[in-house]
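Thread: Newbie trying to understand structure tokens

Hi all, I'm a second-year student working on a class project, and my supervisor (Dr. K.) asked me to get a predicted structure for one chain before our next meeting. I've only ever worked with sequences, so writing a 3D structure as a token string is new to me. If someone could post the tokens and maybe explain what I'm looking at, I'd be very grateful. Here's the chain:
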Amino acid sequence: MATGLLPTLESTLRALLHGRRPARSAAELSERDELKLRYLREVDILRDLTPDEMAWLKDTTEMVTCEAGRVIYGQDEETEVLFILKRGRVQLYRLTPDGKKLEIATLAPGTFFGEMPLISEHMHHTFAEALEESLICIMHREDVERLIVKKPQVAMRMLEVLGDRLNATESQLEALAFRSVRARLAGALLRLAQDGEVRATHQELSEVVGAYRETVTKTLDDFQREGLVDLNRMRIGLRDRSSLEALSSG
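---
Reply by user tm_fold:
Sure, no problem. This is what the structure looks like when written as tokens:
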């Protein structure tokens, strides 16, 4: 779909928060609706919805694109919507008092984020930033509540995802406190790998493992000399997963 057919993030949020839907022509609606339905069917937490329920969800969500580097929401914002990531990658992070990023999670397509204001928290405690051009579906709080009342299993699956995310965050904090940069970086590479490679800059990896970018670059060079990885521009191929696994647990 052409990006020009999609509304901006700001206009969509303004419309949803004021109880309105952005105006669309019949041709735009047809093309967007077909794409939205296909994407929504791929979201695991929505797998039990009937065709009629999926059609309702299609009508209640808005779809936007966010360019790489775009901050989708910031700390202390009170936007009461749920974001569903359909394409791209989104990083959730906090900022330390001195402005350093502490990565909470890097999200792949098919999951959701921005849920804190929907579960009694009055504001976000993290930032959400698109690491690459991302396609996102947005649901208003009232529509999320209707869906959960009608389909409690959706809420249960959301809790499972949040529980897994919390466990991953706790493991990451433990690693920051007790494990070396080599061990943390090996674990991050294994966690972020898709089809045997990681798409991330050295700066992004430094934020994930809580180390200086120069330290991450030197460690990756060491990994390449040791035959553990192949380094290419914006891509890191994993050559020896078993050795990385052993290193990450050390």
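A couple of things are worth pointing out once you decode it. The two ends are 46 Å apart (CA to CA). The mean pLDDT is 82. Feel free to ask follow-ups in this thread.
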